[in-house]
Design a protein that fits this description.
Radius of gyration: 31 Å
Low-confidence stretches: none
Shape: rod-shaped
Largest sheet: 4 strands, antiparallel
Structural class: alpha+beta
CATH topology of the domain at 71-202: Nuclear Transport Factor 2, Chain: A
Mean pLDDT: 83
CATH class of the domain at 71-202: Alpha Beta
Strand order of the largest sheet: 3-4-5-6
Number of strands: 6
Distance between the termini: 121 Å
Helix content: 40-55%
Order of helices and strands: HEEHHHHEEEE
Oligomer: single chain
CATH architecture of the domain at 71-202: Roll
């Protein structure tokens, strides 16, 4: 009889241990699942879309600050492309300038008015010039939020093709994103440091 009681007690202890072990395992699985889900949410929050030539590109980073230089470069390049890539069409020029002004403070409008007063846009129309801009490099100082843009502008006229160097500088400020400013950045105190002819090639008369 004593042996039977001891056997029953051992069975009860074993069942108790199995139950406790199962409970601990279930608890650990719940903790692990919750932690994994939290990490996935954190990763999703750090998924950032960068617009390159109006195409959204997903960039995953462990820290959003790591992507800021790329965001700033994209914004600076987009603005310069809008401002300096033009065709002999007054509506197109107005459209480009309107889009560009959403990306910059009053310094952009000031330069636009200065160029307009000097007849810059009128000369594009009268000479049927096609202007394109090629970016060479963009220096970004994220601490000071300063940039310097280096590029070349190609001006194709009826009789010649002119290549100009283009160097500008300015500062950057983070602002809320919008449909007109997809990067959420504003250029401040923009000015041209250099805009000189590098090459002037005459076309062969037809």
């Amino acid at each position: 009889m004593t042996m039977i009681i001891k056997h029953i007690e051992s069975k009860i202890r074993l069942a108790t241990l199995v139950s406790i072990g199962s409970l601990v395992c279930a608890f650990l699985i719940c903790i692990s699942t919750g932690f994994f889900a939290y990490k996935q949410i954190e990763i999703a929050r750090k998924s950032i879309y960068i617009f390159e030539n109006n195409i959204p590109v997903l960039a995953r980073q462990t820290d959003e600050q790591l992507i800021r230089p790329a965001v700033y470069r994209g914004h600076v390049e987009l603005f310069h492309s809008l401002f300096f890539s033009l065709t002999p069409d007054d509506r197109y020029i107005d459209y480009q300038m309107k889009k560009a002004m959403y990306l910059i403070d009053e310094s952009g409008m000031q330069q636009y008015l200065n160029l307009k007063e000097k007849g810059y846009f009128s000369s594009i129309l009268s000479s049927s010039s096609v202007l394109t801009l090629q970016t060479d490099s963009i220096y970004i100082d994220t601490k000071k939020k300063y940039f310097r843009y280096y590029g070349k502008q190609r001006i194709e006229r009826r009789s010649s093709i002119v290549t100009r160097s283009m160097i500008t500088e300015g500062y950057l400020r983070d602002i809320p994103k919008s449909d007109n400013n997809l990067y959420g950045v504003l250029i401040l105190s923009w000015k041209t440091l250099e805009n000189k002819d590098l090459e002037n090639v005459q076309k062969n008369p037809i």
